[in-house]
Design brief:
4-stranded antiparallel beta sheet, Jelly Rolls, 2 domains, mainly beta, elongated, 3 helices
């Protein structure tokens, strides 16, 4: 943790003992006191930027029509399985917690863990299998009005 001149100096332990103690405890626990610094700085990090799905298949164009954004929070229990399905549009999922293995019928698979993002496949049959703990995902679907975001296996 680095303090600016406005936040304190070498005597912070005496001038702000509660803040100092909290920051030392956070440091020892392997965390930074991020919340205290948010008001002083803004950060941006690209988590995913891709022109192709996780399996390497390039994306083509988006469908024409009135744009419609859908954002889902999906919670899957430990050892749960998402059914086989396809997506008619490119979309992205962010793994909030847990882990998931995405697999295709041909045996291609890849595991994603908390903090990672998934560039989903388009028109490719796949499913997700969750690991040993509950998993939570935020999924972003940039579709068009009237178009399904997911199509179950026939």
């Amino acid at each position: 943790m680095v303090y600016s001149k406005e936040q304190g100096d070498h005597l912070l332990v005496f001038r702000g003992p509660l803040k100092f103690t909290k920051d030392v405890q956070a440091f020892l626990e392997g965390k930074e006191a991020i919340m205290d610094n948010i008001e002083h700085s803004t950060a941006s990090e690209v988590i995913l930027q891709s022109a192709s799905a996780w399996n390497g298949t390039p994306y083509s164009t988006y469908p024409r029509g009135q744009p419609e954004l859908t954002v889902l929070r999906i919670t899957v229990p430990a050892h749960g399985e998402l059914p086989w399905h396809t997506h008619p549009i490119p979309n992205a999922a962010y793994v909030v917690s847990g882990e998931i293995t995405i697999e295709e019928q041909n045996g291609t698979k890849r595991r994603f863990s908390a903090g990672q993002a998934i560039a989903e496949t388009v028109d490719t049959l796949h499913r997700g299998v969750v690991g040993d703990e509950l998993a939570v995902f935020i999924v972003f679907y940039p579709g068009v009005v009237g178009m399904p975001i997911s199509v179950p296996k026939p």
